[in-house]
Amino acid sequence: MAVRYPSPLRPGDRVGVTSPSSGVPKELHERLSVAVRDVRDRGYEVVIGRCMDGSGHVSASAAERASELMSMLTDPTIKAVVPPWGGETAIDLVPLLDWDGLRNAEPTWLVGYSDMSTLITPMTLLTGTATVHGSNLMDTPYRVSEGLRSWLDIVAAPRGHRFTQTPPGRHRTAGFDDFAAHPDVREYTLDAAGAWTRLDGSGDVVAEGRLIGGCIEMLCNLAGTPYLDVSTFARNESPDGLLVYVEAGGDDAFSICRNLHGMRLAGFFDRANAVLVGRTNTPGERSLSQHEAVLDALGPLGVPIIADVECGHVPPFMPIVNGAYGRVVHTPGRSELTQTLD
């Protein structure tokens, strides 16, 4: 099962919008409209699904959400599917999706992060389809920081395309913009300087392998199940090893430490040549920082661990393509992740 790359989007193509997890409250509909308009301004037709209700923690019943997502992913006229954002319990869709049907259908780009890791990572592992871990639809209007790419750039790229992203050197320390009061906000508040950090030691890092990963709080619940069989994927698609990335959405350091230990014991990191860890603003505990939590759990791997990468919940966002071939370089004067859609 070779990695399958969906066709690059072209003007006139259709983009599906649905909420496999949380929908959009009424007071944020204007922000949704701004984001949809930005996608349309790229020349795409936007198809908004029925599962968008934001009055509760999910947009509809699990059966309805699964049906709509399957419908969009198997509709040959829809070339990409993106949610407004994540949520909390997309895991209830996992046993309801027709994974064989998705494997046999023409591949469609599936984009998202946070709770969407529950779906996009198994999508790559079970069907071989490349997926984009990056900004969600509601983040799309933000200006892309220097050195990074938009998910819209990636889904329009041809097979074989190679691109390199570098850290902008600044990030947001806390909080979120008020989309209800400022639905058209387009500039992130990046109020702190920061660079990538090697946790396991010193020295230059150069590592390669196919990319796979996602949000720790979501993936830990799939560890040890058939839906997160990283070892088989590595054996078939990247026998020389993987580049694994993880990021914390908001859990405390103790929870992250436990979850990463569990994922390691379940084999999630067995084929990792290096681990990239997203920057988090979640504070550590008195006796355990977030960096220490990662090192406690993943230090036994004996591979480079690079933290404070822009692949998490802290703006700005660095999209990562699950299934793409990656090459990470980290030296005192250079940090970069190169991805090849091949």
Write the layout of secondary structure elements.
Elements: E1 14-17, H1 29-41, E2 45-48, H2 62-74, E3 78-82, H3 99-104, E4 109-112, H4 117-127, E5 131-133, H5 151-155, E6 162-165, E7 170-171, E8 192-193, E9 197-198, E10 205-215, H6 216-219, H7 230-237, E11 242-247, H8 253-265, E12 272-278, H9 290-298, E13 305-309, E14 320-322, E15 325-331, E16 334-340
Structure description:
- The protein is of the alpha/beta class and 342 residues long.
- Helices cover 24% and strands 22% of the residues.
- It has 9 helices and 16 strands.
- It has helices at 29-41, 62-74, 99-104, 117-127, 151-155, 216-219, 230-237, 253-265, 290-298; strands at 14-17, 45-48, 78-82, 109-112, 131-133, 162-165, 170-171, 192-193, 197-198, 205-215, 242-247, 272-278, 305-309, 320-322, 325-331, 334-340.
- It is globular and about 50 Å long.
- The two termini are 13 Å apart.
Short description:
The protein has helices at 29-41, 62-74, 99-104, 117-127, 151-155, 216-219, 230-237, 253-265, 290-298, and strands at 14-17, 45-48, 78-82, 109-112, 131-133, 162-165, 170-171, 192-193, 197-198, 205-215, 242-247, 272-278, 305-309, 320-322, 325-331, 334-340. By secondary structure, it is of the alpha/beta class.
Fill in the keyword field for this structure.
342 residues, alpha/beta, 16 strands
Instruction: Give the structural class.
Output: alpha/beta
Residue share in helix: 10-25%
Task: Report the sheet with the most strands, covering strand number, pairing sense and barrel closure.
Answer: 8 strands, mixed
Q: Please give the radius of gyration in angstroms.
A: 19 Å
What's the helix-strand series?
Answer: EHEHEHEHEHEEEEEHHEHEHEEEE
Helical element count?
Answer: 9
Report mean pLDDT, rounded to a whole number. 97
Gap from first CA to last CA = 13 Å
Overall geometry comes to globular
The poorly predicted ranges are: none
Name the assembly state: single chain
User: Count of DSSP E strands?
Assistant: 16
Beta-strand content bin: 15-25%
* Widest sheet: strand ordering: 6-16-15-10-11-12-13-9
